[in-house]
Amino acid sequence: MDVYSWFRRSSSRPQSTNNGEEEAIFGVTDQLIDFIKTLSLDTFNNFPLQDEEGANYGDGPGNVRKDLSEWQARHAMLVLSKVKEMSQLRFRLCPGRMKERQFWRIYFTLVKSYVAEYELRAIRLEKLRQMKTENENISDPSMHEVEMLETRSSALLEHNFDSPTHDIGTEKE
């Protein structure tokens, strides 16, 4: 699936009810919006991409899930839905003048100073979630071992208490 299809399909989905909160999480601030509105066709057409970056974003099917992180893809969707100038600019540039991947590479380079802290926060939160999941997975087997040990211990204790009482009762008879 190419980037255009993914964006078209994603934009037709119902939006979150906490859109303001989501915009804050994904760095779609008033300052960013003001900056985006200053971007033009020339900004993108004259942007110097180094050969390595250009080579990575040449021909071939563009898949947003491979080209952009999940955070970047959601950020891009919010920007396109909130800033009509950006949506129009993308429409005029892609795919006629440049590939989607190149467009988003330039965009994220241009807005880096506006969104870096938000993206970094998202990366940190994801790492914390992964660490929590790993810790839960690691602690689960030991919890089962402790539970099994406690069960065995209580069974032995019950057996030890039952046996002498049973023996004493047997001796009296």
TrEMBL record:
- Where do the record's region annotations for Disordered lie? 1-21
Q: Pfam families given for it?
A: BSD (PF03909)
Q: Which InterPro entries match?
A: BSD_dom, BSD_dom_sf
UniProt lists compositionally biased (Polar residues) regions at 8-19
Among Gene3D superfamilies, the record links this protein to:
BSD domain (1.10.3970.10)
Q: Which residues form the BSD domain?
A: 70-115
Matching entries from PANTHER family are given as: BSD DOMAIN-CONTAINING PROTEIN
Write down what this protein is called: Synapse-associated protein
